[in-house]
Amino acid sequence: MSQQYRWNTSVESAELDENWVVMNSEKFTISKLNPIGGFLWSKLQQSLTKAQLVTEVMAEYEVSEEVATADVVRFLDQLTEYGLIEQVG
Hints:
This protein is of the alpha+beta class. It has a domain at 4-8 and 34-84. The chain contains 3 helices and 6 strands. The protein has helices spanning 35-43, 50-61, 65-81; strands at residues 4-7, 11-16, 19-24, 29-33, 48-49, 85-88. The relative contact order is 0.25.
């Protein structure tokens, strides 16, 4: 089975004016997500693979697999680095 990702359980988030704000209380950081980041963040309430997220982005934004993959990989790498998401499974 492919690696899955989901919200880090120590992170709190809120959607404000169509933007997501994410707070990591362990690292004392606050992040504001762009629209695609917010879309992906909302999907990660459940555990999903990179491939599932790419499919979601392609369907929602009507972009190529190449563009969607680049966006998803960048998103997952950055949010993993910031401790906002975790790998499961």
